[in-house]
Amino acid sequence: MASTIIQFKNVTKQYGQDPVVLDNVSFEIEKGKFYTLLGPSGCGKTTILRLIAGFTEPTSGEIFFNGKKVNDIPANKRQVNTVFQDYALFPHLNVYENVAFGLRIKKMKKSEIDKKVKEALSFVNLNGYEDRDIQDMSGGQKQRVAIARAIVNEPEVILLDEPLSALDLKLRYQMQYELRELQRRLGITFIFVTHDQEEALAMSDEIFVINKGKIQQSGTPNDIYDEPINRFVADFIGESNIIQGTMIEDYVVEFAGKRFACVDKGMERNEPIEVVLRPEDLEITSPDQGLIQIKVISQLFRGVHYEILGVDEQGNEWMVHSTKKAQVGMEIGLRFEPEAIHVMRFNESEEEFDKRLESYTEDESDGK
Ligand SMILES: Nc1ncnc2c1ncn2[C@@H]1O[C@H](COP(=O)(O)OP(=O)(O)O)[C@@H](O)[C@H]1O
Ligand SMILES: [Mg+2]
Predict the structure, then answer these.
(1) Residue 368 — pLDDT band, cuts 50, 70, 90?
(2) How sure is the predictor about 38, in pLDDT bands with cuts at 50, 70 and 90?
(3) pLDDT at 211 exceeding the cut of 60
(4) Are the C-beta atoms of residues 218 and 351 closer than 8 Å to each other?
(5) How far apart are CA 136 and CA 335, in angstroms?
(6) Which residues share a beta bridge with 345?
(7) What pLDDT, on the 0 to 100 scale, is given for residue 210?
(8) What is the whole-number distance in angstroms between the Cα of residue 211 and the centre of ligand 1?
(9) From the CA of 100, how far away is ligand 2's center (Å)?
(10) What whole-number distance in Å separates Cα of residue 354 and Cα of residue 332?
């Protein structure tokens, strides 16, 4: 078992009489992994980082660091460093002094500081930039200085608050790669914040999807992409078709006016549900070969695939990603495998969802 480094137990944060910012949040962070907090602006991501760093205290609940409660431990006594979105570098200091700053405050020996600063700069590929003014560094280079300044302190955890959002797309991809590599080499726990779902999927060992101060779902990128537990997650992560339907019985679901075999079970008979079908899981066929028929209302070429939008007889909209071309105005058929249908219950919590999934695997092992 990997060991837990940070734990939140029923943490709530509220400023004055304002609406609750974090609502009874519980989670565990394991040592040495890359975590991402993903969610729309204002959902509480930065607040979680500030609570971990000790810049603010929870209104209620407990925060543990290596098993010890740290609610009252000030920021400078925690083994945590933060990389801020705007880098927060000292503009009047050169690269070397920016990175050395924290070590000087700790009154470390000059020779020791020199060794550590050079090591940190080499980690972020900035050897030879020691004497440069911060103003003369590009956005990507400033980002690297900010990271060097965090790792030079050898913290147990590095918090990164949307560190890439100011960079242009190409540099952003490159820095995603570098950050991930850096985390692997250092073996330090990274907690990274973004509102960009692609970035989260590409970089993380574990993702926490957050909305309105609550963790909606946590898991590996694959778990979350393949088995979103509710409409918010399905909608926020990747593109989805979300269709209203009814769970007729175990393994039989009805939507778009038809019944289909599916792999889900454990709901009530005739329970109203929503199904998710990913656009890339739909195959285009002739109308009579299709399980569902749609009329194509628009088509865009996206480089690797066509993005086809259509509507079925019941008025549901369908997005399809296909290497085959369709024609606007034409009727086409759609085929999909039972495994492509993801059934979601209304208001199912992550805990209840996990329990239901566990019962599937138990059944499977029973059968063997
Ligand atoms: N110091 C503060 N005082 C009052 N409200 C705050 C304060 N800091 C954050 N908030 C509110 O808490 C909510 C979550 O903010 P934040 O954690 O910064 O979201 P995110 O980082 O996900 O965009 C927002 O509605 C924000 O206005
Ligand atoms: Mg924020």
Answers:
(1) very low
(2) very high
(3) yes
(4) no
(5) 56
(6) 273
(7) 97
(8) 13
(9) 27
(10) 37
Q: Each residue of 249-273: pLDDT tens digit?
A: 999 999 999 999 999 999 999 999 9
In the sheet where 68-69 sits, what is the strand order? Answer: 22-30, 4-13, 60-65, 68-69
Kindly calculate the radius of gyration of the chain based on its CA atoms and give it in whole angstroms.
24
Q: Which residue has the higher pLDDT, 309 or 352?
A: 309
Pull the structure tokens for residue 276: 């998710």
Q: How large is the angle between the packed helices 95-105 and 110-123, nearest 10 degrees?
A: 130
In the chain, where the domains are located:
4-226, 239-278+336-368, 283-335
Question: Higher-confidence residue: 77 or 87?
Answer: 77
Residue 24: partners with Cβ closer than 8 Å, 6 or more residues away: 10, 11, 12, 61, 214
Taking residues 181-188, what's their average pLDDT?
92
Residue 251 corresponds to which tokens in the numbers above? 């393994």
359 within 8 A of 266, measured Cβ to Cβ: yes
For residue 346, pLDDT beyond 60: yes
CB atoms closer than 10 angstroms to residue 146 = 23
**Span between the terminal Cα atoms of the chain, in Å:** 27
Residue 321 confidence (pLDDT):
97
41 Cβ below 6 A of ligand 1? yes
Q: Which helix (H) or strand (E) holds 257?
A: none
- Structural element, H or E, at residue 224: helix 221-226
Ligand nearest to the CA of 48: 1
Whole-number pLDDT of residue 363: 64
CATH class name, domain 283-335: mainly beta
Q: Find, among 43, 69, 70, 37, the residue nearest to 56 by Cα.
A: 70
Predicted TM-score (pTM) of the model is: 0.90
| CATH number for region 4-226 | 3.40.50.300
- Distance from residue 133's CA to the centre of ligand 1 (Å): 33
- Asked if residue 211 has its Cβ within 6 Å of ligand 1, the reply is no
Domains 4-226 and 283-335 share a fold: no
Report pLDDT for 357. Answer: 81
